[in-house]
């Protein structure tokens, strides 16, 4: 196994990809309210700013900014995945030791305003990229709708014409 080292920047902004163990599963969207509750609970206990979020059936992308002196995004993800997994296991009647989420996650420390914009685009365009919808506005599990209300994106942004977003898991 490679010796992977995470980057921890106090008050940093990070892009994340979190995936389910079974990439054929739809647990993230099927149990979207359970996921939202897990995020809400962790957010209340350990504040953070959710800059962007998009949940697909088998994986999600997020951009978070941590409080000024805080670096512990790993602990937050651990708790979100634990709360979500325990609830799904109980609702599905699975063995208590079943694995719902992959143990690890992918993160990237945002390095500039352009990097932030690129990753925002990547997060919001992901349902189109994976063929779930033809336009970003048609995917319900995304902060794109909030970003439209805030004037960050026009409502018609992100149809099939967007092809080269320089961000994501590279």
UniProtKB/TrEMBL annotation:
Organism in which the protein naturally occurs: Marinimicrobium koreense
InterPro entries: RAYT_transposase, Transposase_17, Transposase_17_sf
A GO term for molecular function: sequence-specific DNA binding
SMART domains: Y1_Tnp
Highest rank taxon of the organism: Bacteria
Descriptive protein name: Putative transposase
Domain Transposase IS200-like intervals: 9-126
GO biological process: DNA transposition
